[in-house]
Amino acid sequence: MRPPYPPSPERSAELRRRFAEEARSERPDLSALCLLLGAEADRELDEAGLDAAQVELDRLAGLLPYRPGGPRAWAVALRELLGERMGFGGSPADYQRLESSLLHEVLVRRRGLPILLSVVWMEVARRAGAPVYGVALPGHFVVGFGPDEGQVLADPFDGGRVLTGADAEVLVAGATGTGLDPAMLRPADPLDVVLRILNNVRAWAAARPERSDVSLWAVELSLLLPSHPARLRYERARLLVQRGDFVPGALELEAYADVVAAVDEGAAERVRGEAFAARAMLN
């Protein structure tokens, strides 16, 4: 499969404007944000493609049985439709593909990372009226159905397998070496889901220095979210320097150093040193 590459600067600016607007809306639309993210990654995803992905989610929702019952019945219905009938799922090889983090590609390939497959589950279930939400377990994203006292978890990466309490314990222990904290089972905020997806994209690109373009747009989209780690500004500055934009990178390093100085003057001085070194590369 062709590797995805970002769109033109003009198209990118429009996508980012829409992404920021959606992220700051009263009720951010998870599927819209994920698709705009995908369009920033893939120049082939045009407006018709964005619409087609939404139509596919609507189509899949229409294939679910009408109000199948309680939380477990919803989880089983989603597993039977998406996991068994449609073949959505994941494997270790999917972690090596950028497409596994792009919703439009996951809808076509029916393969992806746990969090993107969970987005498919959530968006299809939500359209059908299910009480569904994401659950950000450490190292493995799943979906939840129903209220706390009757919560049912399902693992879209494993074809929608309905999880027991022991299954969830095993997933958490495998990722952290610790026990399951009830706080881990709380519904994930849509913007936190998007930030986690962008973190996955950044991790993919970090292992491939030749794709610093992907690292840069993933950081820049993260910075458009209303809440994001301040250190992302430092990461963006270093990426600019790495890509040869020495003056903009040095300016951003200096601005970040000014912020850091309020809490850690030593760290600020180290960042100012990086800015000085970046400017020296112009000579």
From TrEMBL:
Chain residue ranges for the region called Disordered: 1-27
Family statement drawn from the similarity comment of this UniProt entry: Belongs to the UPF0162 family.
The Protein SirB1 N-terminal domain, residue ranges: 72-199
PANTHER family for the chain: F-BOX ONLY PROTEIN 21, SI:DKEY-261L7.2
Residue ranges, compositional bias (Basic and acidic residues): 11-27
InterPro entries hit by this protein: SirB1_N
Protein name, as recorded: Transglutaminase-like domain-containing protein
